[in-house]
Amino acid sequence: MQFEFRKATPEDADQIWDILQQAIERRRLDGSQQWQNGYPNPDTVKTDIEKNHGFVLVSENEIAVYGALILNDEPAYDDIKGKWLSDGDFVVVHRVAVNEKFHGKGLVKVFFEKIEDFAKENQIYSIKVDTNFDNGAMLHILEKLGYTYCGEVFLSGGVRKAFEKLLH
Length: 168
Description:
The chain has a single domain (4-166), classed as 3-Layer(aba) Sandwich (Aminopeptidase), CATH 3.40.630.30. Helix content is 30%, strand content 32%. It is built from four helices and eight strands. Strand 7 and strand 8 (158-166) form a beta hairpin. The longest helix is centred in the first third of the chain and has 17 residues, at 13-29. This is GNAT family N-acetyltransferase.
């Protein structure tokens, strides 16, 4: 499969929201508390796109994975119960969601590999991400991709597990 990794556009918003709704439902069916309180929502997607934070992995003209990439800006990360691996520039990854049509095909891994390329292109060698304690799928992916558990942060009304990966 060929993939295009690019910034999301306003034309992508409806498809991104559909994918996020699928992910919200998947979290619910998995018994996770993550994303069960009205966040993310269509306004979240609109803001991500307006601020150039939204990114998509496209396969055959269809969005396969969505996520928000934010450079050096996650206030909740300033107050970690634990310790980050680094103090320099970083890319924050939020709101990763995979299109049901592409579920189970390893595309979240591809998306994270593209994020690493994006970070390096911007001379950034740290990626930070958090997830709910009960999001087994994301916890598994982060472990598989070599992310280090750094502690807990308080975000979106709850305690979240925080991870960092240093790039070389």
